[in-house]
Amino acid sequence: MRTERANGGGQAERRDLRVIVGAAIIRDGRVLACARSAPPEVAGMWEFPGGKVEPGESETAALARECAEELAVRVEIGDRVGRNVRMAHGRSVLKVYAARLLHGDQPKALEHSALRWLSADELDSVTWLPADAPIVAALRPMLST
Ligand SMILES: Nc1nc2c([nH]c(=O)n2[C@H]2C[C@H](O)[C@@H](COP(=O)(O)OP(=O)(O)OP(=O)(O)O)O2)c(=O)[nH]1
């Protein structure tokens, strides 16, 4: 039988659901997009920095950890961007949060093949991972032109 629990929003969520968090890091009206370097099926496609939330880890802690590991930056996590996006036949969910860089840190592509700061007009200039489409749409009005 499927085990369910109430999450903060009061909705039922599967206990075995894998949560993947992403950071929409915004600076001067642009968002940081990152090109995946692996695996081969998605290499060259663009995403928000982030990754899987580890057991017992909060979503914001996971984001801070992933941004440090992938980009060598410290971030402040803000509001959610867009909705929960179900992936992998419903076994995982992508949640993206707005974020800003702290202490003047400059992102370095430690795990990605490229980084780009995109304005609202440039959001469609890269090929995002398919699950990111509704997030990118929600992000557009948040980037000043
Ligand atoms: N980080 C990130 N992952 C995304 C996005 N969109 C999207 O579909 N994904 C998918 C790609 C992967 O299947 C999964 C994230 O897994 P990952 O392999 O990057 O996670 P991780 O850093 O924890 O990796 P690992 O420790 O397991 O190697 O979520 C996005 O915008 N950001």
UniProtKB/TrEMBL annotation:
Instruction: Say if the entry is tagged with keyword Glycoprotein.
Output: no
One of the record's GO molecular function terms: 8-oxo-7,8-dihydrodeoxyguanosine triphosphate pyrophosphatase activity
**Cofactors:** Mg(2+)
UniProt xrefs under Gene3D superfamilies: Nucleoside Triphosphate Pyrophosphohydrolase
Give me the reactions it catalyses.
8-oxo-dGTP + H2O = 8-oxo-dGMP + diphosphate + H(+)
The main enzyme category here is: hydrolase
Xref: InterPro entries: MutT-like, Nudix_hydrolase, NUDIX_hydrolase-like_dom_sf, NUDIX_hydrolase_dom
* Pfam families to which the protein is assigned, alphabetical: NUDIX (PF00293)
Domain annotation Nudix hydrolase: ranges: 16-143
Q: Which BP terms in the Gene Ontology apply to this protein?
A: DNA repair; DNA replication
Q: Which UniProt keywords apply?
A: DNA damage, DNA repair, DNA replication, Hydrolase, Magnesium, Metal-binding, Mutator protein
Tell me its EC number(s), please.
Answer: 3.6.1.55
The answer to whether the entry has keyword Chloroplast is no
Family membership = Belongs to the Nudix hydrolase family.
Q: What is this protein called?
A: 8-oxo-dGTP diphosphatase
